[in-house]
Amino acid sequence: MILLRHPLSNGQVYHGNAVYGGSANVSSNVGFPQGTLSKGNPIDFNEAGKELRGLSQYLATLTPTGNTTVQPWGAINLSGSGTAFNVFNLAGSSVSKTNYFEIKGDANSTIVVNISGKDVSLQNFGFNILGTDKQKVIYNFYEATNITATGIGIQGSIFAPLANFNFNNGQVNGNVVVASLTGNGESHNYLFNGDLPNVPTKYYTPPKPPTHTQVPEPANLPGLGLVAVVFGLFGYKRNQATCLK
To answer: Closest Cα partner for 105 from 73, 158, 65?
Structure first.
């Protein structure tokens, strides 16, 4: 599912539905093969944004568990510690210069890669995921306000709830959680299904349900199964991209 908040033009929503609240500005060159466009309000965007930003900030505080090597010739090698949950810290400046990115982890190990820096680029390099699966890898750009990606196939999910994502000539094989998105890059339906820790109330406190009102259980956000929350052509909980503003 893709949730629309801003104009959508020149694209396709494959094998899924798009939902808009209020009115929709959808160009005639947008198609919905095997899906529909309809009006609705299935997600509280403001609350979702608070929760995602809190999660991103909390993940950035976790103690690194694995070994991080940045090679003089530009390669980045991350090696897990043999546990089911691994955390790595990287400088955005190193990521912007890399020409090869490798992650090693045990089978079914969840991998969190915290990447610092406000302006980060990912250009013309390959990812190699060994041992674990790309659907258990998340790249947390917890400070980034601008990310540029081009000529790249990203293996894992992009988590950058503060960032404007300029994404051309490439693909993300995972979720995309960003503040805004421009470009013609692709997001493929490999949803993050790793196990993340619960977020302390210091970073996010869920709202209390209304008195005397039966409400559904909240989605398990720490699982980041995100429906695509789209503010332009993106998403929040189940299809590829989440844009929060």
So the answer is: 65
